Request: fold
Amino acid sequence: MCEYNENRSRKDNAAEVIYSPETVPVKPARKKTAGLALGFALSMALVSVLSVSIYKYNDENETADELAVSETEASVVSEYEAAQAVNSSSDEEVSESPAYKSVIELSAREDALSIPEIVKKVKPSVVGISSEFSSGTVSTGTGIIISDDGYIVTNAHVVQNTENSITERSFEIMVVLSDESRYEASVIGADSRTDLAVIKIFPEGKELVPAEFGDSDDLVEGELAIAIGNPLGFELYGSTTCGIISALNRTITVGEYEMTLIQTDAAINPGNSGGPLLNSSGQVIGINSSKIISDYAEGLGFAIPISSAQPIIDDLIENGYVTGRPMIGISGEDISEITAKYYNLPQGVCVWFITPDSAAEKSGIEAGDIIIGLDGQSIYTMEELNKMLDSYSAGDTVKITVYRRSTETQFEIPLQLDESRS
Reply:
């Protein structure tokens, strides 16, 4: 390594190298004057000839170079103009069709309509529903026109009140169409277990627009989902929200029953109940239910799949209830483990209300009894009781194990299941 001082000169620790030119002795020239003169003349003549040849050669090369440069420049100009034309064409193509797709386009089906087209198509089929109850309370919701003669599907909780374990139907229902015309409606049938109901108006010659139903079994997670309804009442009538299908086949416990539902992040609020959840083709693939909401999370909406709702709707129209479904005929409340220990009672379902002329009344079950078993299997909640009843049919005979608080006794009661009509 070479080291230098501050003035950029090499330090003394590096060996200094001195180069000296080599001295070569020069011989004295001979005196040959005539020969030198002749040689000089011949050399000059040769130089002249060579100079002329070199000049001609250089001149020819320069001309060739100039031609080559001209041709190259022309080629470059042509290529530039061609590139400009391609870029101009590309710019036009880019302006006509973007190189990327929006989230809505990516989540839509191949034959999808635009969202404004979907709203235009479906909005005439969406109605507002106002229900009044004997307690003086009024609830509002949404409905879907399913036939041109006035049948409308909605949620059961829009036209029924189930407070205090007693089901009360609305005595006055008003339907508001998209053109703001109003009609009175009557309940054709309602099913609390699936939260579905069918009502009917008499349009008196008015042309109604039934919604188009799709296939919820054909859905995939991540595809576009659109909800139309009346969130928070008629002041926000006909609101549209948009999202995706977040999940399929969600098992959610709603009240006393388990339901299998579609999950979406499209906003569904009180008032949206009974309205349509739509795919990107503008087809109804679900019936929204705001009954299933959480105070601790956002972007969680649920809808009843239309493929499972359709048979219920058909049954309600034809019979007024869902046929073949077994029932005991009681309303009750779960006794938790803490309550059972505190009052020294068994865990089970405490009977609060017995439906008149039901299987429960005929078999001798009384209000205050605690149902603790069904055909030898322990029962702890109303949800478990209803789930077990689904494995039976109306008319089957089962054995109900009850604990009667008045006598502090436990016994079995044979009971023939009724057909549910609620």
Summary: DSSP finds eight helices and 22 strands in the chain. The radius of gyration is 46 Å. The mean pLDDT is 80.
